[in-house]
Amino acid sequence: MSKVLDYFLDYVKYDTQSKANEDQVPSTKKQYALARHLAEQLKEMGAENVRLSEEHCYVYATIPATAKQEVPSLGFIAHMDTSPAVSGKDVKARVIHYEGGDILLNEEKQIVMKAAENPSLKLVKGQDLVVTDGTTLLGADDKAGVAEIMAAAEYLLAHPEIPHGAVQIGFTPDEEVGRGVDFFDVEGFGADYAYTVDSGPLGDLEFENFNAVNYRVTVTGKSIHPGSAKGVMKNALLMAMEFHQMLPVFENPAFTEGYEGFYHLDEMNGSVEKAVMEYIIRDHDAEKFDKKVERFQKIAEYLNEKYGEGSFLLTEECSYRNMREMIEPHMHLIDNAKKAMEKLGIPPLVSPIRGGTDGARLSYMGLPCPNLCTGGCNAHGRFEYACVQSMEKIVELIIEIIRLYA
């Protein structure tokens, strides 16, 4: 047994919630507390070249090579922050043995994780789960990944007889707000290839993600007293609704799955004078994605002709591309991950990510980087949990992948 559970229960005590719409990285200073703790632990276990970026809160370290021949240097990366969606402060984690049925998380508040609403629980019946008291998220996304990398690092450093190339470790801030690798030092990291450890149930293996762009649509209207508004008023709220109604009705997240893309109106607020809509546009297929973006832009152009230039302003907030294009020339990353899973009795579950990942951006920064499972489920919510046996298996998986490259 590794120390992965001990590490995990330690790390979830740290409130590392990131914050959207902040200019600086990290978006919250409290992420530094866990970063410093991890750096100290890495030094204590004997890792080399341990460094903490005081400016942007990245932790890097190296497990030196033990192989006699030259082999690729692999990296393993996880993020320290937790989602802004639900509080990550004062997490009260506990381990339960799950034998099926509903899980009473909080008797006082009657917070229950219902089996009927959480079908993933069927897969972990008879195993040990880390859960919360239902008032916070757990933080398995991605502190389970952090703990698994740390447990694997500790094992390799304690067993130098295992031949392997140099292993690079990286922990990032702000992944949950889309800025996790804004200042990641790819060249200084020193890996030829890497894996993010940031997916879900045991067996998850991902090397495809959405092509993505975020848009802010600012609608400028003209306010006047309703009693004298005829021919003068331009109601920004109604104009915003008109914009949205021109998008395909069934191309939204509520009607899509698998490889299907969507337009998603994530936030809307405003008044007659001004309205703001926050959109995300996603599609795995690059051609379909480009057509979605083109349609979005043409709607704005048409409505600007109708209501006057400047009535609709599109501001691109962030974007990333499907990493498959960058991974395909290096499919040994997927093949070896599958081979390691099969050796350990883990059925590989290869599926597209219906979202983004630090690995996508890193892949386009020159570091091919598919995504491995963590054993966590129900991320970003109070019903988040992590399976202890899965976390133990993922520690073995990381070690086995490293061995396959020696």
TrEMBL record:
InterPro entries: ArgE/DapE_CS, Bact_exopeptidase_dim_dom, Peptidase_M20, Peptidase_M20_dimer, Peptidase_M20B. One of its GO terms (molecular function) is zinc ion binding. It comes from Cuneatibacter caecimuris. CDD domains: M20_peptT. Zn(2+) 2 binds at residues 141, 176, 380. One of its GO terms (cellular component) is cytosol. Belongs to the peptidase M20B family. The keyword Hydrolase applies. Binds 2 Zn(2+) ions per subunit. Zn(2+) 1 binds at residues 79, 141, 198. This is Peptidase T. Residues 208-307 form the Peptidase M20 dimerisation domain. The active site is at residues 81, 175. GO terms for biological process: peptide metabolic process; proteolysis. It catalyses: Release of the N-terminal residue from a tripeptide.
